[in-house]
């Protein structure tokens, strides 16, 4: 146990160093490529030079201050007060991010669970029927969905949903936002929420279940041809029993690694889907940061996603260690 | 008696071989490796379909601007938001721009961006990945740490930061550079894993002890031995390049007016989806066809390189074909019996 904790601590320290270096690099990159000054200069009427300088100085975004000095101030604020700075407009990045994580989680949670369940079961189903028509159909469909750009998929789904709405003359599907009902009735609220979340969930589920499906199919096929499955068959197990009791278990180990990364990505949201369905989550915030020259916001999003990715990596290690008897913590 | 027979047979076999050799090399058709792969590739219907579609799309992108009366930059103010008709084959958008001209131009952009990105990314990741594997020891540790560190921040963010600063007409070059700058990292990691077994081969060690410089070993021994994987990766990488271009342009970060691309058309059309659905549907269909054709080619190449796949074909004479049929029938019967038991 002590060795395990030691290993874990070493890993975490390594990850923290990685996030620190990567975030710092992002900060310098963002400072080089984004110019918050242009936000003020393009305003009509153009504010006075002093007020521009004052606003930029207040947000620690003035490009006339040496970048190392700005970096130092930015880092000190984070380390001492956990303050990720201000946007060019003067809003606190901390507040904006914390208010948006909720929307992303609402959006991603359902679709992540659905895509894991659907993807893995389809993978198991098709692997058992390799080269039969079911396998050809589902795997063919999956490889088509695999290559379709997310934008195209989302737009087509929105298009058909609007068509259905028009044909039936009712608003069955909502294509923007997460809710439009503000009343006290819980059930109307729930149905309203479901109407809003249905389409983005379909898009996200299709995109990510395809990966699970194809991976799980490959993993299970690899295991089905392993020697120990043949041994199990030779001892008298039926093919189904041998797969369920032996091959399937082993094939779920690499899948669990993917699941770990998916769990982490729940919090970072989905850029394209949030943009198309006008959901105010982390993905949309990131796009807004880039478009509004919000250096501090963009770097905070980068750091946050980095932390989530590494959390996923840590989870993946733990999952693999728990499931795979061959792995020893060292 | 039997021995005698065998001996006779051996003799005749040997004689046959001698005869075959004497007949000269013209008798045996020699085929280069590339020729072999091409033959296996063209044996697959789906791959040929993919290649044909791609060829048509490439021709359309090259010659489309010449057969279309309109340019993607000059609007036709007499026809604004009209549905596809004889004059405007794909209709026009809200600004009166001919959609056929725009789509053809955007298709060209997508193809150029996808191909350049794929080739650059594969080249960089192959060199870095194998170099890290070949370095061993501390070099490998530091290299892997750097790769992991670069993978921590989603590359989507970093690329978006860089390409957003680009101007309208040069945006696509900036987009290629930005995508390539952060696109190779994941691949390099995969290729390093593949190169781990290659670096242990005898010919690599032999070259090393003969004093061949490391760069030469990497370029001449390690990378060519990853060749098949690299070719497949390049083709599939084109798809991810096209997908990324669409995503960035849709978000208004990649290609911007006055230039146009499929993603940009989509973003323009998505606001007028009800009044002018063709603006959204046509580029979508083109993108899907393009990506699926690349996918078919990639799958075809994978099967062509895989010695165990069915693309290798069967070479059999009449006798063994009958044997095969018998075996297959027996196996099917056995299977049926087996499944009956289950």
From TrEMBL, chain A:
Keyword Transmembrane among UniProt keywords: yes
Cited InterPro entries: MetI-like (IPR000515), MetI-like_sf (IPR035906)
Keyword Transport attributed: yes
Predominant location category: membrane
Domain ABC transmembrane type-1, residue spans: 101-320
This protein's GO CC annotations: plasma membrane
Subcellular locations according to the entry: Cell membrane
GO biological process, one term: transmembrane transport
CDD domains in the record: TM_PBP2
Domain of life: Bacteria
Pfam family, one: BPD_transp_1
Residues spanning the membrane: 12-33, 107-125, 137-160, 197-214, 247-267, 301-323
UniProt entry keywords in alphabetical sequence: Cell membrane, Membrane, Transmembrane, Transmembrane helix, Transport
Membrane-topology annotation of the record: Multi-pass membrane protein
Protein family according to the UniProt entry: Belongs to the binding-protein-dependent transport system permease family.
Name by which UniProt lists this protein: ABC transporter permease
Organism: Tractidigestivibacter scatoligenes (Olsenella scatoligenes)
Lineage summary: Bacteria, Bacillati, Actinomycetota, Coriobacteriia, Coriobacteriales
TrEMBL record, chain B:
Domain ABC transmembrane type-1: 111-298
A Pfam family assignment: OppC_N
BP GO annotations: peptide transport; protein transport; transmembrane transport
Residue spans of biased composition, Low complexity class: 328-342
Region (Disordered): 316-342
Membrane topology: Multi-pass membrane protein
Primary site of residence: membrane
InterPro entries xrefs: BP-dependent_transpt_permease, MetI-like, MetI-like_sf, OppC_N
Transmembrane segments: 47-67, 111-134, 146-166, 172-191, 276-297
Protein name: Oligopeptide transport system permease protein OppC
């Amino acid at each position: 146990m002590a060795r395990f904790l030691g290993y874990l601590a070493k890993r975490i320290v390594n990850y923290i160093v990685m996030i620190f270096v990567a975030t710092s690099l992002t900060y310098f990159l963002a400072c080089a490529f984004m110019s918050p000054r242009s936000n003020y200069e393009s305003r009509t009427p153009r504010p006075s030079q002093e007020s521009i300088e004052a606003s930029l100085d207040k947000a620690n975004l003035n490009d006339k201050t040496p970048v190392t000095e700005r970096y130092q101030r930015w880092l000190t604020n984070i380390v001492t007060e956990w303050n990720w700075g201000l946007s060019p407009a003067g809003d606190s990045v901390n507040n904006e991010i914390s208010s948006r994580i909720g929307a992303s989680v609402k959006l991603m949670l359902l679709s992540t669970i659905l895509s894991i369940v659907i993807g893995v079961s389809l993978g198991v189903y098709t692997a058992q029927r390799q080269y039969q028509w079911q396998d050809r159909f589902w795997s063919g469909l999956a490889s088509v969905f695999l290559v379709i750009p997310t934008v195209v998929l989302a737009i087509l789904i929105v298009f058909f949903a609007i068509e259905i709405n028009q044909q039936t003359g009712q608003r069955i599907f909502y294509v923007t936002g997460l809710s439009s009902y503000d009343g006290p009735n819980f059930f109307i609220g729930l149905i309203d929420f479901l109407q809003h979340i249905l389409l983005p969930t379909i898009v996200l589920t299709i995109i990510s279940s395809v990966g699970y499906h194809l991976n799980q199919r490959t993993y299970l096929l690899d295991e089905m041809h392993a020697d120990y499955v043949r041994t199990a068959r030779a001892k008298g197990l039926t093919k189904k029993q041998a797969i369920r009791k032996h091959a399937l278990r082993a094939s779920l180990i690499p899948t669990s690694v993917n699941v770990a990364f998916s769990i982490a990505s729940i919090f970072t949201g989905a850029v394209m889907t949030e943009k198309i369905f006008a959901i105010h989550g982390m993905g949309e915030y990131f796009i807004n940061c880039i478009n509004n020259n919000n250096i501090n916001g963009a770097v905070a999003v980068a750091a946050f996603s980095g932390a989530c990715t590494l959390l996923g990596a840590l989870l993946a290690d733990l999952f693999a260690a728990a499931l795979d008897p061959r792995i020893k913590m060292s | 008696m039997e021995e005698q027979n065998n001996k006779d047979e051996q003799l005749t076999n040997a004689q046959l071989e001698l005869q075959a050799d004497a007949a000269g090399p013209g008798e045996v058709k020699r085929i280069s490796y590339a020729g072999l792969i091409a033959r296996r590739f063209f044996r697959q219907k789906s791959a040929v379909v993919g290649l044909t579609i791609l060829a048509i799309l490439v021709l359309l992108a090259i010659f489309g601007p010449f057969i279309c009366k309109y340019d993607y930059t000059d609007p036709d103010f007499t026809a604004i938001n009209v549905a596809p008709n004889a004059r405007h084959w794909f209709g026009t958008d809200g600004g009166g721009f001919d959609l056929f001209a725009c789509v053809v131009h955007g298709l060209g952009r997508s193809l150029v961006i996808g191909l350049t990105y794929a080739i650059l990314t594969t080249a960089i990741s192959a060199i870095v990945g194998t170099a890290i594997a070949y370095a061993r020891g501390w070099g490998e540790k530091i290299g892997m740490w750097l790769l992991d560190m670069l993978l921590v921040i989603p590359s989507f963010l970093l690329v978006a930061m860089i390409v957003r600063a680009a101007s309208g007409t040069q945006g696509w070059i900036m987009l290629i550079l930005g995508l390539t700058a952060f696109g190779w990292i994941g691949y390099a990691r995969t290729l390093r894993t593949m190169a781990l077994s290659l670096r242990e081969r005898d010919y690599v060690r032999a070259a090393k002890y003969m004093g061949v410089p490391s760069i030469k070993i990497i370029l001449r021994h390690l990378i060519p031995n990853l060749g098949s994987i690299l070719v497949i990766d390049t083709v599939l990488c084109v798809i991810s390049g096209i997908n990324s271009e669409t995503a960035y342009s849709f978000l208004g970060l990649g290609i911007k007016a006055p230039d146009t691309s499929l993603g940009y058309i989509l973003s323009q059309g998505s606001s007028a989806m009800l009044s002018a659905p063709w603006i959204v549907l046509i580029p979508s269909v083109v993108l899907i066809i393009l990506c699926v054709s690349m996918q078919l080619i990639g799958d075809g190449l994978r099967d062509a390189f895989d010695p165990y796949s069915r693309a290798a074909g069967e070479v059999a004479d009449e006798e063994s074909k009958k044997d095969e049929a018998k075996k297959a029938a027996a196996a099917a019967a056995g299977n049926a019996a087996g499944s009956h038991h289950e």
